[in-house]
Amino acid sequence: xxxxxxxxILFSAAAYPQKKDPEEILNKVKAKFESVNDxxxxxxxxxxxxxxxxxxxxxxxxxxxxxxxxxxxxxxxMLPKEGLNFSPxxxxxxxxxxxxxxEENYKGAETYVxxxxxxxxxGDIVLSTFWIDKKEYxxxxxxxxxxxxxxxxxxxxxxxxxxxYHLPSQMVFSFDVSKSNLPASINDGxxxxxxxxxxxxxxxxxxxTAGKVTINYSNYKVNKGIDDSIFEEKKxx
Length: 237
Description:
The protein is α+β, with helices and mostly antiparallel strands.
């Protein structure tokens, strides 16, 4: 009887494979990113929003683990809060509940799909979905729903720097934007003679549309060492 029960259990396990452990997958993503102690990279930013004319801008990003960032830019660029320096740790540093959703082919790459539900109400993001490369354990895509700014999507391409560091060569941010969410410097620069637009519900006087920011990264210098004074100067400003 015991032998029959064991055979049944083994057969059931083979016929219905267990779901992947989402925490184990996310830990591998964290470990991959944590292998990068610091980097400097040049970026070119292009903003595509229907009612804005923002010229392309260039910047240099300095990053040092765990979360030090300094950005030198020649001009203003409108970006989502997650900004120029995307880090998977920024999504995963607080408590969350991970849910394994399945597997999916994303732009030719086999990925794990994992939903992240933050625990607590202190953040703006209420739900994120990650598409994680099954082979390299890098994030290919993130889609997040927020309390205030709607939904935004981040899509990433990777060049395979030095065959061991997987930092993006391009990120594309897609998001909803309204005039009320823009900084005053941009609102003041808009044409006052432009006719009022309608939002998705038809409400007049509200500028609302989809926006996209394309960020191209080049000239990475990885794990070369960055003096902390660069980040201290940023804090004084």
